[in-house]
Amino acid sequence: MSGHGFLLAAYVPGTSLVHRAPLWLKFLLVVGCGMTSFLIADWAVSAAMLVLLCGLFLLSGAGPARLFRAVRPVLPVLVAIGLFQWWQLGAPTAARIVLNVLVCVVAASILTATTPVQALLDGVASLARPFRRFGADPERFALTIAIMLRSIPFVAQAYTDVRDSARARGLERNPRALVLPVFISTVAFARQTGEALAARGLGEPEDPED
Amino acid sequence: MTQTDRPATARTPRRRGRWNATDLGLIAVFAALVAASALIAAIPVGGLGVPITLQTLAVMLTGLALGPGRAFAAVGLYMLLGFAGLPIFSGGRSGLGVLAGPSAGYIIGFLLAATAVGWLTVVVLKRTAHRTGRLRAILLFAAAMLSSIIFIHGLGILGMMVNAKLDFSKAFLADLVFYPGDIIKNVLAVSIALALHKAFPDLLLRRVRTVDPRP
Questions:
Q1: Mean pLDDT, range A112-127, rounded to an integer
Q2: Quick one: which of B125, B146, B147 has its CA closest to B136?
Q3: Where are the beta strands (DSSP E) in chain A?
Q4: Closest CA to B90 of A73, A175, A116, A1
Q5: Structure confidence at residue B2 as a pLDDT band (50, 70, 90)
Q6: Å from B160 to nearest chain A CA?
Q7: Which of A148, B35, B156, B171 has a beta carbon 3.0–4.6 Å from B28's, enabling a disulfide?
Q8: B134: contact with A, CB 8 A cutoff
């Protein structure tokens, strides 16, 4: 998990209609699906919506394998819930519950499969813009996002290193020995980062505190 | 338990330049810590080797280490990027789709629990300024348990009721399996937080003291 590779897993490059649709429209699709999933009372409507969204996903050229990979993490728990609610509430209700969750998951993965990570992050950073008048600073916000992304591999590496050294000392069953050094080095890393930013004149508030 | 009325309830956590570059670094790196903790494998605990996942540990520690404002910003940043589509939720899940899943309540609960435990941590550190012994550890543990029961378990149950349409008693039972792990994690979190404050007194301790110089 070194580097940023793991963050790019969901995106499938392409030039389809879905790829070219503006980010806000795709975002609206996801939110809309989330809202309507609470209103739908008939499982057939949910199933129709799911088919429609799967069609949209495949229209982007990402392929059925990608679609399955997007849905796979939720499948075990959905099977469990589906069977339980089938027993409790009957087949139509169980089908509606499971299908509604699937609708939301597929809608969200349409967004992530057709939008480059950088565009998504720019979208998130631009969320700060309307709050500028309340003291929000979009540039500092974007900077914080960038630092976070670059720090994930560092923390993951710290966990691996600490686990190896705990094993070398015969402490692999001692949770404190497995976790405390990670947090110490993480805080130290954060402060180094802060000092490095301050030394470059980045990240400091624009007007000094009075 | 009104935890969010004082610090950083603003939608976006930059508040009039109150935070300097080190604070930004801490917020960003703790957000990365929560993300990495969700992605790595569970660690074995004790002689039996029951594995525990580290995400709730990282969330509670963010509150215990940074205090309410910065903890809210760090966990909020993590959630925001997860919702935007980075695969940083547990099990490599991502996107707004998780809000429709049965574990949605837990993820929202993380944000409130980290803020609440951060706020309580500041209160405890102030009140026990001159008694740093066992009392402080016990009070911090109580603060962590209270926050996780009310917010993580409370919202977790609510999330299962809304998204999986379980009724309360069944959701409560489904949630009950997380309690033993949570108690272990909170003990661990408090012990690590105290070590962190000893190693880095300016992380939160000195801030608390300068805000309220008690005689």
A1: 80
A2: B125
A3: none
A4: A73
A5: very low
A6: 10
A7: A148
A8: no
For residues B73 and B40, the model is more confident at: B73
Choice between B10 and B147, residue whose per-residue pLDDT is larger: B147
Both structure tokens of B143: 């603060």
* Cβ contact, residue pair A193, B28, below 8 Å: yes
Task: Give A167-176 pLDDT, tens digit per residue.
Answer: 888 887 777 8
Rg of chain B over Cα atoms, rounded to whole angstroms, equals 17
Please report the sign of the dihedral spanned by the C-alpha atoms of residue A156, residue A162, residue A164, residue A166: negative
Say which CATH topology domain B21-211 has: Arp2/3 complex 21 kDa subunit ARPC3 (1.10.1760)
d(CA B53, CA A178): 12
- Give the residue among B82, B78, B76 at the shortest CA–CA distance from B97: B82
Measured between CB atoms, does B200 come within 8 Å of chain A? yes
Tell me the whole-structure pTM to 2 decimals.
Answer: 0.80
How confident is the model at residue B5, as a pLDDT?
Answer: 39
- Could you tell me the two tokens for A26? 């795709």
The residues that bridge with B51 in the sheet, in sequence order, are B44
Tokens 């105290």 label which residue? B194
Rounded alpha-carbon distances, angstroms, from residue B53 to A179, B38, B135, B151, B185? 12, 7, 28, 18, 9
Q: How confident is the model at residue A52 (pLDDT cuts 50, 70, 90)?
A: confident
Domain regions of chain B by residue span: 21-211
Q: What is the ipTM of this complex?
A: 0.78
Answer whether A162 touches B (CB < 8 Å). no
Confidence of residue B10 (pLDDT cuts 50, 70, 90): very low
Measured CA distances, A161 to A178, A182, B12, B32 (Å): 10, 9, 34, 17
Contact criterion met (CB < 8 Å) for A176 and B188:
yes
**Between helices B21-39 and A175-199, what is the axis angle to 10°?**
140
For residue B14, pLDDT over 50 is answered with: no
Span B159-172, average pLDDT: 82
